[in-house]
Every structure is written in structure tokens, then in C-alpha cells.
Design goal:
Blueprint lengths: L1 E6 L5 H5 L1 E6 L6 H10 L3 E6 L2 H7 L5 E4 L21 H4 L2 H4 L2 E4 L4 H10 L3 E3 L2 H4 L4 H14 L5
Parallel strand pairs: 1-2, 2-3, 3-4, 4-5, 5-6
């Protein structure tokens, strides 16, 4: 099967094609029902949060989660954080949570060190790579930077 793939939509494919996980975005209704179903199928379940208060309340239901946008989005103009970075620090001091929380949104080379220093489990990149003149080279640059910091991204 495909243990390193995660579906972000079209969940009916999860049972028949064997991805290792499913991502339940914040707009999904009936998350409890979906979590029960996918746990029975031994899927890794992730989600996205858009404010630190959501993380504290809901994170225990997921193997990992994204907090976004952490910086103003690169790929979605006008999409900005609805919280101050200081609001995240108490969450990241919770060792049961910090390794499972990933920063997402607006992340490029200038942000990796701050994210690592704050204690996130990692960072997820999209716009920085998609919008680069050479996405493959940008990806290699970001991986090298993360390896220097000995972090998972």
C-alpha cells in the first residue's frame, strides 16, 4: 500500500487504495465520525488549525496538525495570521504537543530558524517552493537549511 501518502479530500478512496493517512481540514463537518472511521482503518489522521485556542482544545484527536497561516501566506495573497506568535509559545512548551504541531503558511528561508527555536515539530512549505523560479532548487535549499538545524520539515 502507500503508508507515506495522505489524502486531503476524496476520502472514499482511503479504504480501497491504502494511503497511510487522511487530512481533515477545518471545514470538514462530522470530524468525530471521520476520526472514528479512519482510526478503525488504522489511518494516521491530521488536521489544520487557524488559531492557538483551537489547538489546545482539539489537538489530542490527531497524530499531527498544522497551525496556519503562521506568517502571511505566499501562495494565498491577503491570507494572514489571526494570532500573535506569542500566543503559540505556551502550546509549544507542552512536550506532548510540540513535536506534533507544524507551522504552515508564508514560510521561507528567513523563518526556519525562528520556527525551530520556538519548538515546533517542523514546518510545512508550499508557496515558497511552488512560486520559486526553480522549485527543485528551492526544495534542496530548504532541506539543507533544515538539516543544519537538525529538524524535521
Amino acid at each position: 500500500m502507500f503508508p507515506f501518502l495522505s489524502l486531503h479530500s476524496h476520502y472514499t478512496l482511503a479504504s480501497g487504495y491504502g494511503p497511510g493517512g487522511v487530512h481533515l481540514p477545518s471545514y470538514i463537518k462530522n470530524k468525530d465520525e471521520a476520526c472514528t472511521q479512519f482510526r478503525a482503518e488504522e489511518k494516521i489522521i491530521s488536521t489544520s488549525f487557524h488559531h492557538p485556542s483551537e489547538v489546545r482544545k482539539e489537538a489530542g484527536r490527531y497524530e499531527y496538525a498544522f497551525l496556519s497561516p503562521f506568517y502571511p501566506s505566499i501562495s494565498k495573497p491577503g491570507y494572514r495570521p489571526s494570532f500573535a506568535h506569542e500566543e503559540v509559545i505556551p502550546l509549544l512548551q507542552d512536550t506532548a504537543l510540540n513535536s506534533r504541531l507544524f507551522a504552515l503558511g508564508g514560510i521561507d528561508e528567513g523563518h526556519i530558524e525562528e520556527i525551530a527555536a520556538m519548538g515546533f515539530g517542523g514546518a510545512a512549505l508550499s508557496g515558497a517552493i511552488w512560486n520559486a523560479p526553480s522549485p527543485a532548487e528551492k526544495f534542496k535549499t530548504m532541506i539543507a537549511l533544515c538539516r543544519q538545524l537538525n529538524h524535521t520539515y
